[in-house]
C-alpha cells in the first residue's frame, strides 16, 4: 500500500510515527483527517472506490465519510485527553451491496491543532467469511443436537459434551447428570477394554475408529446395545474423542427372533416337511427324522409318500380345510397317529405332521379311567344333548348310555333339598352351559326311571372355556342317598328326645324365640308340665318303670295337644307344650286342664296301676314380646313352681308379679349378706305382759331389715332366705348381740327386771358357735342369763330332735330359759316336748284369734294351758288383739300375753316407759 502524508490537507501537523504506525496496521485503507478547529474533513485518494462510488463527486464522498466518522468525532470531542477509537460500520453501495468498513482513529491535540486522524478500511470480505463461519457452526451444532444418533465428546476420560439423544439413551433427565462424569460410568465393563483399545489407535485429529458394538450402562441400571464410532477431535483446544452411537437393541432383538424361529423349525416336535408340487421332499427337519426314522439325507429327494409310509396328497388336505388325521408308518414299520396340516408355499407345499400317537393313547386311558370311576360322569353338548355317560352314571341314575345318548339332559327330573321341582333353566348343566361358570356341590334329588328317588351331589363345569356360550359341560355326581339318610337320622337325634320321641329342649327354645313374632291379637301359650312325685316312682319302682311312665305321658301330651302344637320334653319329668294362636288365658287354661285330666288317668306299667298328677305353669306370649326363648321357659317354670306350692295337680298362670316376687327374692338373698354390716338390720321390741299384775315383764326382739330399695322387709320374708344358707348364723349372732345390749339399755332406763325373748331358727341349733355366742353376749352385757329366753318353734325341734335336745341342754346349762314357739301348729306330742328342758310354752296366735268365736279354739287353748301348768310350764298367749281375748285368757289363768292389743313391736328408741304403778 502506498500513502503520502504530505498529500493531506495543509495545516495538518501530524506526528510521522503515528502515521506509520497506523498505516502498518491496515491492509487496504484510506486515511482521513477531521479538524475540530476548522471543521474541515480531508482524506487520501481511494475513498471513492472504497465507498463503491468510483469517480463520484467530492461532496458525495465527503457526505458519506462524514456520516461514517460522525460517531467517532462526536465521541472524540467529548473526550478530554487523546484516545484511540475504533468502529465497524456497514453501508449500502448504490448497487445495493452491503459493505463493511473498519474505522480506526486517534485524537490529536497539539498547540495549534486539534482534530482526529483516522484510517478507514474495507473489511467486507472478512465480515462475510465470519458470518459464513458462524452460520456453519450453528448449523453443525443443530445437526448434532437434533441427531437421532447419540453423540458425545469425552476428554481425558470425562464426558464434556452429550447431545439430547445421548442424554435420553443413558436414561438421564438432563445433560447435567452426564457431563463431567467419567465415560467409564456409562460403558459396560465388558465393552470398556475394547473401547480403550480403539481410541488409543486414534492418534491424529480427525482419525475415526471402525464401527463396533458396545454396551452402554443406563442410569437406571439397564443397558443399551449400540454400534459406536469414535473420532479424534479437539475440544477447547485440547484433544478429545467424539463418539457417535446408534441404538441397535431392536436390531439385535430382531436378529434373535429370527434365530429363534430358525431354531424352532429345528426343534419343534412336529415334523416339518417341504415338498415340490410333485411331492418330492425338499426339506426335512430334525423332528421329521425322529418321527419317521429317516434322516434328512435319506428323505430329501424322495417322494413324500415313500418316507411317511402312506398316501399324502396336500391338495386333498387343503380341500378339506387344511387339516387331516392320518395313519403314517415309521421307517421301522410302527404305526403313527398323525394330524397333518398342509399349506401351499412357493412352488410346493409345507406339511406339518404332528405325532398324536401318545395323545390318543392318553385319550384312551382317560376313557378307561372315566369308565372305571365311582363317580357318575355325563358329558352334555352345548345344546344340552347328552354326548356320553359312564357306567357309574348308568348305575346311579338307573339308565343306559344308549337310552340317553343324544337325548336332552333335562330328561331326569331334579328336585331341590326341600323336594320342590327345579325348573329346567336352573339345572346345574343349564347354568354352566349358559354362563360357563362351574357349579359346585349342588345337592339335588333325582327321580330315577324306576321311580326311586335318590340324592346326588353334583359338580358341573364347562368343557371349553374359550368361545361364546353355550358351552359343552361335564357333570359329575355321587350318590349320597345313604349319607343323606344318615344326616337326616342325626338331625332327628339332635332335635328329638330319645326316650319319648318328642322335640328336645333346644327345639322348644328355638320355637319359643319365634313366639313373639306371632301375629297381633293371637297369643302363644307355653305350658310347662311337671309330673308330681315322679321321683318317688323312679326311686321306688326303678328307672324302667320311670321311663315307661315318661313315654306314656309324652304320648298322652301329644294326643292331648292341638294339631300344630309343639310338644317337647325338657328333661327329667318336665315337658312343654307350645300352643300357637291361643285366644287368651281362658283358652290356655282350658288346654292345661284338658292335658292335666289326660295325664292324671291311671297308668298301667308292669301290671301296676299308678296315679300320676301334673302341675302346669302357663305363660302367654303376645306379639312383640321381647323375651328370649330361655326367658319364657324360665317364667313358665316359675309358674309351674307356683302351681306346685298350691298342691298337686294345679296350674298357675305366670304374671309379672310372680316374676317380680321371684326377682325380689333373688335380690334380697343377694343383699342379705351385707345387710348386717350396712346397719340395715335392727330389732323391734314387743312387750310381754303379766296377766295377773298387768305389768310388762319381758320384750320379744323381732328382727327387721330396712332394705335400701324395698324398705322394711318383714322377717317372715328374709328369715327363710337366711335359713337356706349359713347366713342365719351370722344374722342370729348379730341379732343376739344387739338385743342383749338394747335390753340392757331398757333395763337401765326404768325397768331393771325386764327380760328378753329372742327367736332361734332351726338351723341355728346345729351351729357349733351358737352356745359360745350366747355365752359371749351375756358376758359382754352382764345381763343375767335367767333374764334371757330363747324361743324355738315346734317344727325346728322336730327337724332333728337329738341335736335340738343337745343344744337346748347346753343353752340351759348357761342358765338361759327356753320356750316353745307357735305351739299347736306342729304335730309334736307334748310328751316329746317334755323331754326337753323347757320353761315356757307360747300358744300360737291362730288359736288366740279363734277365742270366743270357735269352740274348738276355746277348748284347745283351755287344755293347753291346763296341761302346761300341770308340768310347770309358763304359758304365753300370742297375738292378743282384743280386750275380750285378754279377759278370756285371764279367766283361764294364762300367765303371760303378747299382742297388738298390749303393744306393737317398736324400735328401741321409741319404746314406751313402763306404766308407773
Ligand atoms: P313369732 O316368733 O311368732 O313372732 C310373733 C309374730 O307375731 C311377729 O311377727 C309379731 O309382729 C306378730 N304379732 C305380734 N302380736 C300380734 C297380733 O296381735 N296380731 C298379729 N296378727 N300379729 C302379731 P313378725 O315380727 O313379722 O315375725 C314373724 C316371725 O319371724 C316370728 O314369729 C319369728 O318366727 C320370726 N322371727 C322374727 N325375728 C326373728 C329372729 O330374730 N330370729 C329368728 N330366727 N326368727 C325371727
Ligand atoms: Ca317368737
Ligand atoms: Ca309365735
In short:
The chain is an alpha+beta fold. The chain has 31 helices and 38 strands. A hairpin with a 2-residue loop joins β25 and β26.
Query: Structural class, from secondary structure content?
Result: alpha+beta
Number of strands: 38
Distance between the termini: 177 Å
**Uncertain residue segments:** 1-7
Proportion of beta-strand residues? 25-35%
Mean pLDDT: 86
Helical fraction equals 25-40%
- What small molecules does the structure contain? ligand C2E, calcium ion
Number of helices: 31
Q: Give the overall silhouette.
A: elongated
Rg over C-alpha atoms, rounded to the nearest angstrom = 66 Å
Summarize the biggest pleated sheet.
Answer: 8 strands, mixed, barrel
Please state how the strands of the largest beta sheet are arranged side by side.
29-30-32-33-34-35-36-37
Secondary-structure topology with pairs:
Layout: H1 16-24, E1 29-35, E2 41-43, H2 47-50, H3 58-78, E3 84-92, E4 98-109, E5 114-122, H4 124-146, E6 150-155, E7 158-162, H5 164-169, H6 192-200, E8 212-217, E9 223-235, E10 238-247, H7 249-267, E11 271-276, E12 281-284, H8 286-292, H9 296-299, H10 304-308, H11 314-319, E13 323-329, E14 335-345, E15 348-355, H12 357-372, E16 376-380, E17 386-389, H13 391-397, H14 401-404, E18 413-415, H15 428-435, E19 439-447, E20 453-462, E21 473-479, H16 481-495, H17 505-513, E22 523-531, H18 534-541, H19 543-560, E23 566-571, E24 574-582, H20 585-599, E25 603-605, E26 608-610, E27 614-621, H21 629-645, E28 651-653, H22 656-675, E29 681-690, E30 696-707, E31 711-713, H23 715-723, H24 727-750, E32 755-759, H25 770-781, E33 788-793, H26 794-799, H27 801-814, E34 817-823, H28 830-834, E35 840-843, H29 845-850, H30 855-870, E36 874-877, H31 883-891, E37 896-897, E38 906-907
Parallel strand pairs: 27-28, 30-32, 32-33, 33-34, 34-35, 35-36, 36-37
Antiparallel strand pairs: 1-2, 1-5, 3-4, 4-5, 6-7, 6-10, 8-9, 9-10, 11-12, 11-15, 13-14, 14-15, 16-17, 16-21, 18-19, 19-20, 20-21, 22-24, 22-27, 23-24, 25-26, 29-30, 29-37, 29-38, 30-31
Helix pairs in contact: 17-21, 18-19, 19-20, 22-23, 23-24, 24-25
Bound molecules: ligand C2E and calcium ion (2 copies).
Amino acid at each position: 500500500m502506498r500513502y503520502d502524508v504530505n498529500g493531506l490537507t495543509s495545516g495538518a501537523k501530524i506526528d510521522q510515527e503515528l502515521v506509520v504506525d497506523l498505516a502498518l496496521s491496515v491492509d487496504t485503507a484510506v486515511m482521513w483527517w477531521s479538524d475540530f478547529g476548522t471543521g474541515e474533513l480531508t482524506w487520501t485518494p481511494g475513498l471513492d472506490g472504497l465507498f463503491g462510488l468510483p469517480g463520484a463527486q467530492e461532496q458525495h464522498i465527503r457526505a458519506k465519510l462524514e456520516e461514517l466518522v460522525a460517531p467517532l468525532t462526536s465521541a472524540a470531542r467529548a473526550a478530554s485527553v487523546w484516545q484511540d477509537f475504533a468502529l465497524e460500520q456497514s453501508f449500502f453501495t448504490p448497487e445495493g451491496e452491503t459493505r463493511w468498513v473498519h474505522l480506526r482513529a486517534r485524537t490529536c491535540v497539539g498547540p495549534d491543532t486539534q482534530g482526529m486522524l483516522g484510517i478507514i478500511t474495507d473489511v467486507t470480505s472478512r465480515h462475510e467469511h465470519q458470518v459464513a463461519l458462524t452460520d456453519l457452526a450453528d448449523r453443525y451444532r443443530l445437526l448434532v443436537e437434533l441427531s437421532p444418533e447419540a453423540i458425545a465428546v469425552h476428554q481425558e476420560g470425562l464426558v464434556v459434551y452429550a447431545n439430547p439423544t445421548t442424554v435420553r439413551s443413558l436414561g438421564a433427565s438432563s445433560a447435567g447428570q452426564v457431563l463431567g462424569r467419567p465415560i467409564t460410568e456409562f460403558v459396560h465393563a465388558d465393552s470398556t477394554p475394547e473401547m480403550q483399545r480403539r481410541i488409543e489407535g486414534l492418534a491424529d485429529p480427525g482419525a475415526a475408529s471402525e464401527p463396533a458394538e458396545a454396551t452402554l450402562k443406563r442410569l437406571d441400571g439397564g443397558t443399551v446395545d449400540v454400534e459406536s464410532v469414535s473420532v479424534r477431535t479437539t475440544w477447547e483446544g485440547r484433544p478429545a474423542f467424539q463418539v457417535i452411537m446408534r441404538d441397535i437393541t431392536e436390531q439385535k432383538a430382531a436378529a434373535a427372533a429370527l434365530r429363534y424361529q430358525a431354531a424352532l423349525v429345528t426343534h419343534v416336535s412336529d415334523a416339518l416337511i417341504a415338498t415340490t408340487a410333485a411331492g418330492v421332499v425338499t426339506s426335512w427337519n430334525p423332528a421329521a427324522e425322529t418321527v419317521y426314522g429317516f434322516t434328512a439325507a435319506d428323505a430329501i429327494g424322495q417322494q413324500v409318500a415313500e418316507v411317511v409310509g402312506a398316501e399324502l396328497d396336500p391338495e386333498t388336505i387343503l380341500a378339506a380345510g387344511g387339516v387331516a388325521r392320518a395313519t403314517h408308518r415309521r421307517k421301522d414299520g410302527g404305526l403313527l397317529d398323525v394330524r397333518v396340516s398342509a399349506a401351499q408355499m412357493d412352488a410346493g407345499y409345507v406339511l406339518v405332521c404332528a405325532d398324536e400317537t401318545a395323545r390318543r393313547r392318553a385319550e384312551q386311558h382317560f376313557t378307561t379311567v372315566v369308565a372305571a370311576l365311582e363317580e357318575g360322569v355325563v358329558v352334555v353338548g352345548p345344546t344340552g344333548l347328552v354326548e356320553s355317560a359312564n357306567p357309574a352314571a348308568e348305575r346311579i341314575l338307573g339308565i343306559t348310555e344308549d337310552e340317553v345318548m343324544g337325548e336332552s339332559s333335562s330328561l331326569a327330573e331334579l328336585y331341590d333339598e326341600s323336594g320342590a321341582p327345579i325348573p329346567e333353566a336352573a339345572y346345574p348343566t343349564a347354568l354352566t352351559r349358559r354362563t360357563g361358570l362351574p357349579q359346585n356341590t349342588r345337592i339335588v334329588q333325582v327321580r330315577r326311571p324306576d321311580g326311586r328317588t335318590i340324592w346326588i351331589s353334583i359338580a358341573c363345569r364347562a368343557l371349553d372355556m374359550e368361545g361364546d356360550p353355550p358351552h359343552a359341560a361335564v357333570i359329575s355326581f355321587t350318590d349320597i342317598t345313604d349319607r343323606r339318610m344318615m344326616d337326616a337320622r342325626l338331625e332327628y337325634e339332635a332335635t328329638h328326645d330319645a326316650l319319648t320321641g318328642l322335640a328336645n329342649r333346644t327345639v322348644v327354645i328355638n320355637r319359643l324365640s319365634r313366639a313373639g313374632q306371632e301375629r297381633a291379637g293371637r297369643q302363644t301359650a307355653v305350658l310347662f308340665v311337671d309330673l308330681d312325685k315322679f321321683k318317688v316312682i323312679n326311686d321306688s319302682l326303678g328307672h324302667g318303670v320311670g321311663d315307661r311312665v315318661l313315654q306314656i305321658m309324652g304320648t298322652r301330651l301329644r294326643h292331648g295337644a292341638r294339631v300344630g302344637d309343639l310338644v317337647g320334653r325338657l328333661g327329667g319329668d318336665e315337658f312343654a307344650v307350645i300352643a300357637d294362636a291361643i285366644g287368651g288365658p281362658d283358652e290356655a287354661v282350658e288346654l292345661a286342664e284338658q292335658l292335666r285330666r289326660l295325664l292324671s288317668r291311671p297308668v298301667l306299667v308292669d301290671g301296676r296301676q299308678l296315679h300320676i298328677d301334673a302341675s302346669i305353669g302357663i305363660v302367654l306370649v303376645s306379639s312383640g314380646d321381647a323375651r328370649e326363648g330361655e326367658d319364657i321357659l324360665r317364667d313358665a317354670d316359675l309358674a309351674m313352681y307356683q302351681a306346685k306350692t298350691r298342691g298337686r295337680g294345679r296350674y298357675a298362670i305366670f304374671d309379672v308379679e310372680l316374676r317380680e316376687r321371684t326377682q325380689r327374692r333373688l335380690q334380697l338373698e343377694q343383699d342379705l349378706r351385707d345387710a348386717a354390716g350396712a346397719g340395715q338390720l335392727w330389732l323391734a321390741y314387743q312387750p310381754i305382759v303379766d296377766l295377773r299384775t298387768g305389768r310388762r315383764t319381758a320384750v320379744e326382739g323381732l328382727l327387721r331389715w330396712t332394705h335400701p330399695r324395698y324398705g322394711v322387709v318383714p322377717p317372715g320374708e328374709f328369715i327363710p332366705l337366711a335359713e337356706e344358707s349359713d347366713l342365719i348364723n351370722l344374722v342370729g349372732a348379730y341379732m343376739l348381740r344387739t338385743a342383749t345390749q338394747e335390753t340392757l339399755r331398757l333395763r337401765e332406763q326404768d325397768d331393771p327386771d325386764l327380760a328378753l325373748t329372742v327367736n332361734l331358727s332351726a338351723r341355728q341349733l346345729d351351729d357349733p358357735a351358737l352356745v359360745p355366742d350366747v355365752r359371749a353376749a351375756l358376758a359382754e352385757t352382764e345381763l343375767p342369763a335367767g333374764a334371757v329366753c330363747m324361743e324355738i318353734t315346734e317344727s325346728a325341734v322336730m327337724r332333728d330332735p337329738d341335736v335340738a335336745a343337745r343344744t337346748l341342754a347346753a343353752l340351759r346349762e348357761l342358765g338361759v330359759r327356753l320356750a316353745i314357739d307357735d305351739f299347736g301348729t306342729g304335730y309334736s306330742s307334748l310328751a316329746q316336748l317334755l323331754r326337753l328342758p323347757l320353761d315356757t310354752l307360747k300358744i300360737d296366735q291362730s288359736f288366740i284369734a279363734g277365742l270366743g268365736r270357735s269352740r274348738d279354739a276355746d277348748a284347745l287353748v283351755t287344755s293347753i294351758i291346763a296341761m302346761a301348768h300341770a308340768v310347770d310350764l309358763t304359758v304365753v298367749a300370742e297375738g292378743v288383739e282384743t280386750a275380750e281375748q285378754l279377759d278370756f285368757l285371764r279367766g283361764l289363768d294364762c300367765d303371760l300375753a303378747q299382742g297388738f292389743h298390749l303393744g306393737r313391736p317398736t324400735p328401741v328408741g321409741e319404746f314406751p316407759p313402763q306404766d308407773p304403778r
